[in-house]
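Supplementary Methods S3. Input chains for the assembly prediction are listed below.
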Amino acid sequence: MSSSSGTPESWISSFCSLLGHEYFAEISEDFIEDDFNLTGLQTQVAMYKEALEMILDVEPEEEDDDEEEEEDEGDESIEGEGRTIRRAAIERRHNRMDSNLSIIESSAEMLYGLIHQRFICSRAGIQQMSEKYELGHFGVCPRTFCDGVRTLPVGLSDVPGEDTVKLFCPSCLDVYVPPNSRFQTVDGAFFGRTFGALFLLTFPDYDISKKGPDSLGAHGSRNAITSASDADDKEKINGFNVNNLAPGLGRGKVYEPKIYGFKVSERARSGPRMKWLRDRPVDLIELDEATIFGAVEESEDDAGNLNGARTQPRQTLGASKKGRKPNGGSPMSIDANEQQFAG
Amino acid sequence: MDDFNSETDSDYTSYWRDWFISSRGNEYFCEIDEDYLTDRFNLTGLNTEVQYYQYALDLVTDVFDLDCDDEMRETIEKSARHLYGLVHARYIVTTRGLAKMLEKYKKADFGKCPRVMCKSHPLLPMGQSDNPNVKAVKLYCARCEDIYNPKSSRHSAIDGAYFGTSFHNIIFQVYPALIPTKSYERYTPRIYGFKVHAPATLIRWQHGERDDMRRRLRKLEIESGFKDDEEDLDAGDSEEEEEELEDEAVMEVLQNGQLAAGDPTAQV
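Predicted structure tokens for the full assembly:
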């Protein structure tokens, strides 16, 4: 439609190079052409077919036009009236096109965004996003104690029109408003709620505490060191590397309010109340409820002493007890997890 | 004075301080009263900290009339800015200074908290050290009680000592009505509506810490400042309830097959 000759750039790449669209990955055409990936989008987007054609740079079918032209060539004899009628028809068509074009354009953007939400959770998409992550395309965490670690774009809703895109910091497990206002026009649903967490589970070996684009190549090196299964067991909590679980939180990374060097007491009216939000246990293994539960179960079997076993780490143990079945360790096998998400 | 005018391509008319606080990048500063600056007591010890102390002070108080070369003037100008910053740190914890900064806080001159759950709560400038040239200025959010880096690079070049480590805490002691209500609201990483195990355990642990704190405060009969005060702690074992709620939510999701139905309020 608008592909004036000489512009090799596709709609997708021009869309992704627009100002404010820096977070978007370029969806491969294969992904869009697979109807399965578009299931249900037809009802969500107006002028779905036209929008899809626009995204894929497919020329809309213009049978009518061709026919008219052919007719014209034949009807050369009644040139006068015929010409004017035809011109009027074309003008009408053009007018309609112009008014529709903006609608189709916005539908195409919406459709692209919705496909994008699905694409970045696919293998090819998440791979592309990881490259963008490595290059620091998504910016850094504004929190001082996170020390400029890279963030991931996420949505707080999967439904378009509800909220704009946010940045998820894997180091403090919190979400932030992008610093630049140009991202405040980008819909959060185009990234979705799933991507951020899925990314962390897909690439468990990223050193997320590294800042800026300098961790290139760090990916995988850690794996080699901890290849021994014993070390692996110790370092992981259900598919999460322990050193990747909120490294920006915990002791030394919680802000401590002071006045003239003296800590403000919790008992003061203006004292600290939100430390829990940035805290984490000194020994993260304490959080591995499933493994601890397994151990507790065993010792219960051995000694039959329920109270003794319960005095282990936290009360949460007692709570988690009811919900989970004992299977001697993690509720999901770590191996299976890894295979499933192996990048 | 005239020479100086032409050199710093600004068209300021009379007051150095006016020019200083209105120039780009200095939006965080408030104007220090003449009275405060001229009281030597307030400047105790700064003469060892600032080069060409007397000239710098003259410049700040608009009585500078030394005839010297450009290089010298540049140095004095720099010293004057440094001096102003150091006096600023002392001034903003005085009654008048607090009032001025309060006005700026209310207008959100220092920016808004980038944390989504803080809903654009205004920030306050702070330093991580009271000694100059240690750390740049940071921004404190009273709602999440955390500190953030300024968005703009021209602000992140300001010395944190020009605001000090105490000001942002003192202001809430002086104006307790300003303390924002705290909230439980937080982000929970999810995949297709399901919480991710490792972060979820951490979050449960953090909520345990929080409830412990609230119980401690309750025992001392101190207001905790949470919006939803006095609600869920009465039962005593809120953690178990929480857990049950979560389980129920998950069961619901499983039964209905609605992946998107993960209820964010279940966490609270």
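Chain A touches chain B through 65 residues (CB under 8 Å). The first helix of chain A runs from residue 11 to 16.
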